[in-house]
Amino acid sequence: MPTWLEAGFWGCVAGSALLLGAAVGYLARVPQRLIAAIMAFGSGVLISALSFELMDEAYHRGGFTSTALGFLGGAAVYTAVNVYLARQGAMHRKRSGDMQPSEEEDSGSGLAIAAGALLDGIPESIVIGLSLLEGGMVSFVAVIAIFLSNIPEGLSSAAGMKRAGRGPAYIFGVWGAIAVVSGIAAVAGYTVFRSFSQQVIAGTTATAAGAILAMLVDTMIPEAFQETRAFAGLITVAGFLAAFALSKLGECR
């Protein structure tokens, strides 16, 4: 299998977890506290992955300057776009309760929510493609971590979309499209950057890490804390430990 096609495959695999989570969130009556707990666990998984898989890799590739500039730049760009989309009605796109506006309450919010979900997923997918630049093998730790964190993202958001009155065509159309775009973004991560210098690759990896961390604080962690309260920290730590264990198992292979 060509390497670029492999990147697309793994990107779609990780992105498919969004569709899986959305199906559970739409078809089953999952308690909000359980959704929040899963969200907290997924947040811990992603924090661990960006710490040990992304930032550490970026530092060893390009040094501190490229890594720091990319990390801050990714967070800044994500925040700027997220602020704009929040004003269009996408602020609570990952909330499972009654906080998402319906189209009747806020015209255009449906499109903003879809764009926001896309914004959240692209940095993660690019990382998968970038991981193939080192030795031609995908980072299975990154794929697993993104897959695990995508399930609660899709679950919580789909539950909120359903409560806001959005139908199955919209909900599954959004998450199905994002799963496909995840594969395309992973291909781009490999094909676009394979001819660039180590510093550029390092900066791009760190940019994705910064965007992911900003996304966690802006969208996932508030949902996790809203319902789990005192247990949010403990559950997040459990997710972090799970991904950390995966990274160490990957080093032993």
Could you describe the 3D structure shown?
The protein is mainly alpha-helical and 253 residues long. It is built from seven helices and no strands.
Radius of gyration: 17 Å
Structural class from helices and strands? mainly alpha
Number of helices: 7
Helical proportion?
over 70%
The mean pLDDT is: 84
State the distance separating the first and last CA atoms.
22 Å
Low-confidence stretches: none
The tally of beta strands, per DSSP, is: 0
> Largest beta sheet, briefly?
none
Order of helices and strands: HHHHHHH
Shape summary: globular
Oligomer designation: single chain
Question: Can you tag this structure with a few keywords?
Answer:
single chain, 82% helix, 253 residues, mainly alpha, globular, 0% strand
